[in-house]
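Chapter summary example: a protein plus guanosine-5'-diphosphate.
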Amino acid sequence: MSFTLAIVGRPNVGKSTLFNRLVGKRLALVDDTPGVTRDLREGAARLGDLRFTVIDTAGLEDATDDSLEGRMRRLTERAVEMADVCLFVIDARAGVTPVDEIFADILRKRSGHVILAANKAEGAAAEPGVYEAWGLGLGDPVQISAEHGEGMNELYARLMPLSDGFAARTEAEAPEIDVAIDEDADPDGETVPAYAAPTPERPLQVAVVGRPNAGKSTLINTILGEERLLTGPEAGITRDAISLALDWDGLPVRLFDTAGMRKKARVQHKLEKLSVSDGLRAVKFAEVVVVLLDAAIPFEQQDLRIADLAEREGRAVVVAVNKWDIEEDRQGKLRALKEAFDRLLPQLRGAPLVTVSARTGKGLDRLRLAVQKAHEVWNRRIPTAQLNRWLAGMIEQHPPPAPGGRRIKLRYMTQAKTRPPGFVVMCSHPDKMPESYRRYLVGGLRTDFDMPGTPIRLHLRSQS
Ligand code: GDP
Ligand code: GDP
């Protein structure tokens, strides 16, 4: 049994782009169907194994009269009436606008299912908008990029339990049935979208980055088990980012190889400059970034820069130390590496460090597992009830400070986003919170919920 999904939101947030992505070539314009006006587009949509009807309120942009708001209201209300589920789209890059608030009001008053989507969420520029979207009071936003096809797994995970509910309803012809709760739902009754594991259709996107000669091409060749990429002793022999989809011992991945990043001083030609931005681009595409270091010359300036960029872009990071086969004092080296890592990249604390030999293939199993785990953690969602029990324990153990004699009260906490995990803590005087206490909370989250290899964002908000 299928259901009907209405895509609503103000003009320009990406509704049509999403509609086209869901409908693909199966678009059927049915504007002569009774009840469907020319303002509403309808199509047969597909997402994974889900089949449903999608309605798009695209005609709105043509509104030239001054009663745009009235028209928008009527159109949205009609779409909402026709639909089982509403997908309310905002533009995460633009943030929440007053017009979005009007939509949120309409949708909040409606009792049906509403899924909030923060579109244009590719890259870090969208992060503030995702938190603003969370503040609309319509639940956690699904982060998507309609244009790049990102976040479709999570959208699927949100729709799936609902569609089960509709199917059950038709079969039993019982008009009232609760929303089906997926298998990962916690005992407190919250619906937690399942982790969407990589599939051949949606492989895990991995970028291998590192300086020229770190061994990136060798690594990829070994994984491929065949000489598909050109390797050699010359620095920067691969000039462009190359992407390859492959099955890495059962894990579907798309690997982005990048030309080695050169020291700025050595950048001479245009092409070499290009290769630096290729590395940066690969980071933006990736879900997990493998920073490949040469054990003989680890943590040089450009290694640090790219690792820092990956963190700021919110990617999961795994550090791999290569050429371990020719390392003599392994114990001593490992200790030194860990020390240097903590000192030079404190922002990546908790990222796994794996020693490998791209040439012999030793350690690549551990690398694959670290990549897989980092991806899973990066996507993880912790139920609110569990978080608040944890928060209470943290406060008891170490109460927040009282700047100027007024104690900061932490009231409530929830996870507002994933990829990477982002948390919101409602508190008094968020501006007075010292950095050390924030670090205490982030560090606690990382260890208590076992979240290596992913940036963790923590936002403090005052209750309004
Ligand atoms: P609608 O008016 O809500 O139907 O929006 P459109 O689908 O026409 O998209 C408006 C603009 O946003 C177009 O220029 C799209 O190319 C752009 N857009 C749509 N989705 C995305 C996205 O995921 N990321 C970015 N960066 N731009 C997008
Ligand atoms: P890229 O520039 O990062 O793609 O590096 P390459 O894959 O071209 O490797 C640069 C040089 O390092 C080549 O001479 C490789 O044979 C060598 N190399 C790569 N991986 C290893 C390794 O695990 N052990 C050793 N001993 N040498 C390696």
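Key point: The first helix runs from residue 15 to 23.
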